[in-house]
Amino acid sequence: MAHLDSKVASLLDNSHNEEDEDALLEQLENDSTLGAFREQRLQQLHSELSRAKHMRNQEFGTYTEIQEEKALMDITTSTNLCVVHFFKPDFNRCGIMDTHLNGLAPKHFDTRFLRINVENAPFLVTKLKVQVLPCVLAFVNGVSADRIVGFEGLGYSEDTFTTRDLEARLLRAGVLVRAKTTGVTGNPAFGKATKKEESDDDDDWE
User: pLDDT over 70 for what percent of the chain?
Assistant: First the structure.
């Protein structure tokens, strides 16, 4: 993918409605700091919006639950960038992870964001040695590039993190194209499990 001009990237990442192309183009046209590259930037914005629409029509930009592990394997091996959350519906921490991934998916339309119930993926759970939930795997060109076990390595403590922290971790893994989360998304305290929740969410789910 061609390098995206910083002004175009900033406009896209801060927009609340990428579908309104006319409004975004007008906003860029009215930027007095554009200088000599005005037409080039306008064309790049138009191309990027068209590409985003095309990708979303192929289910990028959404957080999708996959019901069968064969379908999950097909997607991860045929898609360049994938984030997969192995979860159990009754685990509070999995719900917290879902909230953050659901917030990232619409911003990162170059990456597929998927989830699968571990009960529907016995082969993959064994093959990938998924033992602690939530478990998030980052796949680049079909190869696992990173593994997030529980909330390990996120935020200032294992149980406190923001969507921006998760985005930064996935960026380091190379499964996201660029940082798109502006400010701190999500309440840091939201990620903190209470003692009761911790007792309900046994790390070893098997």
Answer: 62
